[in-house]
Amino acid sequence: MTEENSITYNAAISIIMPFDNLFHRLSELIFNGCFPSSVHDQLAGELVKARLMKASARFDEALEVVDSTLHRLPDYPEALLLKAQILWEGYGNYPAAKACLQHVLQMKKMKNEQDETVRRWSENLLKEMLEEKRAQNRRAKADKRRR
């Protein structure tokens, strides 16, 4: 992440954090409390919570929510993508994040256009992660040579 992106990200977090509890409560009411029409809708509400936690750098909690969601619906492309983002951004865990993205990319049938969009996002994230990993390796080799 570049310094400019980091500053923008931190500014966004400082705006979002005060509203975290409000968003959490609203997502509970909308998706879990009032009128969930399907398991998928209920789990979509869980992903809203996980995204807010991720945006607040509460990666452990976000990962718990996503893992719980995937326990109920293991082939949920959006949850797999979010898990990959959490693993990569929060923990730098390239192998686990890559496995989540590959799971999405290996799915034969996507249920709808949104899932197809998630597939494209997964492809893009996988490419970005690979580029970042290669850049990290180049920097590490350059540092090693300087020593």
Task: Spell out the key features of this protein.
mainly alpha, 147 residues, 83% helix, 7 helices, Serine Threonine Protein Phosphatase 5, Tetratricopeptide repeat
Tell me about this structure.
The chain is mainly alpha-helical and 147 residues long. It has one domain: Serine Threonine Protein Phosphatase 5, Tetratricopeptide repeat, CATH 1.25.40. It is built from seven helices and no strands. Helix 3 runs parallel beside helix 5, helix 5 runs antiparallel to helix 6 and helix 6 packs antiparallel against helix 7. The mean pLDDT is 83.
- SSE series: HHHHHHH
The helix tally amounts to: 7
Structural class label = mainly alpha
Largest β-sheet summary: none
Helix content: over 70%
Strand proportion, as a percent range, falls in: under 5%
CATH topology description: Serine Threonine Protein Phosphatase 5, Tetratricopeptide repeat
Which residues form runs of ≥5 with pLDDT under 50? none
Q: What is the terminal separation in angstroms?
A: 25 Å
Number of spatially distinct domains: 1
* CATH C-level category: Mainly Alpha
Rounded average pLDDT: 83
The assigned CATH architecture is Alpha Horseshoe
Number of strands: 0
Cα radius of gyration in angstroms? 17 Å
CATH superfamily: Tetratricopeptide repeat domain
Label the overall shape.
globular
